[in-house]
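Checklist before submission:
- one chain only
- standard amino acids only
- sequence pasted in full

Submission:
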Amino acid sequence: MKNARTRLTALLGALILLAAAAPVAATGQLLAYQDGYVFFTTGDGFKVAPNVTVLDDATKQPTKQVPAPRDYARVVFNDAGEVSEIDLSSKALPVAAFPAQVKGYAVSVSSPYPNPDLAAAPATSANGVRRTFSGIPVLVKFYVQVPPQTPLDAQVYIATDVSNWNPEAIRMDRVDAMHFVAILRLASGTVLHYLYTRGSIQSEERSANGLAMKPREIVVNDSDTNTTDGVVATWADSNGSNLLNQPTVFPTPYNPAPFPNLPRGVRTPAPSAR
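Returned file contents:
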């Protein structure tokens, strides 16, 4: 009896050790994989270990497939909180908020380091507080939702003041039917003004009333990553306003009603006297 109890105790101890040694893992859908980081559609980003292994989730064998946006994946974390294994799945995996233990591994604010060229250059925030930036390279994620009437085959770009408002300056990656993402590496302290376009000035974003809008602005701060979320109200070439087009013809005795689409109750202008 004593020997059986001893064996049972040892077995329970072994099971506890195995459970404690089990790697921390999570599943989700990828938003981006670049520059040593992996981002998920939940908005979480994690640092990738230098020796990360990429496997096929079904076979657990190495794969040549490179993690890409919209891929489903299971990620495994090492003791340092870095992603040491990425298992890519051809089937949808659960997409939910990461548990608290995994959340603790998410990228956080970095300690700034001195930069003689930028550290002494103050900037003023929107609330008037003066601050300085270290100039460290930062991954900046631009995530935007486009209007439902956006063509399914449309490509979305970011036009910036740095590119002289080139409407195709920065190409974004499609996440789904209504969302696009782009990740840039910018120095902290950068003040960037930008607008979303579909590749031309005629198809740039507009405010909800259809009028030209003030460019968006982001000030890159001293952290591992910055994220800016946006919503495009409408496009310049979308017929989303209720404004009538200016007439291009006038009533004449031969064509007294050149405006067949006038709203109900609006009288057709009388022919001009000759």
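Reviewer check: The mean pLDDT is 77.
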